[in-house]
Amino acid sequence: MHAGDTIFALSSGAPPAALAIIRISGPGAGNALAALSGGLPSPRHAVLRSLQDPDDGGLLDRALVLWFPGPTTATGEDLAELHLHGGRAVVRAVEAVLARMPDLRLAEPGEFTRRAFLNGRMDLAEAEGLSDLLFAETEAQRVAAIRMASGHLSRQVESWRQEVLRLSALIEAELDFSDEDDVASGVADTTGQGIIALASHIGAALQRPRAERLRDGIRVVLAGPPNSGKSTLLNALVQREAAIVSDIAGTTRDLIEVPVGLKGIPFVFTDTAGLRDEGAEVIEAIGIDRARDAMAVADILLWLGPEGQGGARAWEIETQIDRIDVSRETKTAARHRLSARTGIGLDGLIDDLVMTAQTLLPGAGDVALNARQHRLLSECTEALDRAGQQDDLLLRAESLRHARLALDQLLGRTHVEDMLDALFGNFCIGK
Amino acid sequence: MAARMGARTALVSFTRDAIGAMSCNPAIGGLGKGHLVREVDALDGLIARAADQAAIHYRMLNSSKGSAVQGPRVQADRKLYKAAIQRMLGEQDNLHIVEGEVAAIRIESGRVSGVSMADGTSIAARAVVLATGTFLGGRMFRGEERLEGGRIGEPGASLLAQQLRAAELPMARLKTGTPPRIDGRTIDWAMLDKQPSDSDGWTMSPRSQGRSVPQVFCAITRTCQQTHDIIRVNLDRSPLFSGAIGAQGPRYCPSIEDKIHRFGDRDGHQVFLEPEGLDTHLVYPNGISTSLPTDVQRAFVRSMAGLECAEIVVPGYAVEYDHIDPRALDHQLQVRAIPGLYCAGQINGTTGYEEAAAQGLVAGMAAAGQVLGRQIELPDRATSYLAVMIDDLVLQGVTEPYRMLTARAEYRLRLRANNASDRLTGLAIGNGCVGDERQAWFERRQRAKAGLLTALQRPASCAELAALGLPVKADGARQSLQDWLRFPAISLASLSPLIEGEHDLADDLIAEIEEDAVYAPYLARQDAELRDLRANERISLGGDIDYRAITGLSNEMVERLSLARPETLAEAGRIRGVTPAALAAILVHARRQAA
Question: Is the C-alpha dihedral spanning A73, A78, A84, A86 positive or negative?
Answer without folding.
Answer: negative
